[in-house]
Amino acid sequence: MPPDDFEEDSKKKADPAGEIDGLEENADEVEYEPIEETEPAAEKEEKTGPRPLGEEDKRLRSRLKKKEAEFKALRKDLDELRDKYLRNLAEMENLRKRFERERADYLQYSLNELLREMLVVLDNFERALKTRDQADVRSFWEGVELIYRQYLDLMKKKGVRPIDVTERKFDPTIHQAVLTEESDEVKEPEVAEELQRGYLINDRLLRPSMVKVRLPRKRGEQ
Fold first, then answer.
1. I need a labelling partner for 150 at 20 to 30 A (CA). Which of 91, 139, 167, 186 fits?
2. Radius of gyration of the chain, Cα coordinates, nearest whole angstrom
3. Total number of domains in the chain
């Protein structure tokens, strides 16, 4: 580098004011673009007002209100049904307790009337037994027969009647075979003898008749 140029360059470096003046000259030539200040979306919306609803928004809001109304109606129905269910449950429980109480009372006291009438027969038996030594045999048996008829009348009054075995035809639904014998005189089983009388209450079997049954003799047997 020539000595003159070196000296000139050294002077520029040693003089800072000269550099600043050069920067100022260059700065005057730079063009600055203005920066636009942005406002927050909420403040901007406050100034401009809410965005108008579109058709889709209106339709969605309408459907939402309808669903809310349906939900409230269903909630009301559910509450009413729950209340009704609880009331019915309480009523059923009360009916069950009442039925059990009445059933227990019935089983305990249903025979009161019958037993009260049977006590009259028992009283007559006691009177007959007390006077058996004082009365003659004929009068005593007449008294016993009278009590027997009284007892039968009581049973008849309650719907109890004896099973008739005069037809002699064996019926396993009302007869209980206790003894059997074979005979050539019969072609089908029949009642030979009644050992214990059976009874019906109305049309239902109360006690079967115990009978001796005569059976047809098997072939080949003498």
1. 167
2. 60
3. 1
- Report the pLDDT averaged over residues 167-173: 89
In a domain, 123, yes or no: no
> Distances in Å between the alpha carbon of 92 and those of 95, 103, 177?
5, 16, 49
DSSP letters spanning 47-87: HH-PPPP-HHHHHHHHHHHHHHHHHHHHHHHHHHHHHHHHH
Question: In sequence order, which residues have a C-beta less than 8 Å from that of residue 98 and are 6 or more positions away?
Answer: none
Tokens representing 12 are: 């520029």
Question: 182 is in which domain, residue-wise?
Answer: 160-222
Query: Residue 96 phi/psi, 5° resolution?
Result: -65, -45
**Closest to 153 measured CA to CA, from 124, 173, 128:** 124
| Angle, CA of 81, 82 and 83, to the nearest 5° | 90
Domain-located, residue 84: no
Distance CA 196, CA 125 (A): 22
Residue 173's nearest CA partner among 193, 200, 155 is 200
Max avg pLDDT among 10-24, 78-92, 137-151: 78-92
133 within domain boundaries: no
Domain of 173, CATH number, reads 2.30.22.10
Higher pLDDT pick, 166 / 101: 101
Nearest-angstrom CA–CA distance, 198 and 62: 84
Per-residue pLDDT tens digits for 104-131: 888 888 888 888 989 999 998 888 888 7
Tell whether 139 is covered by a domain.
no
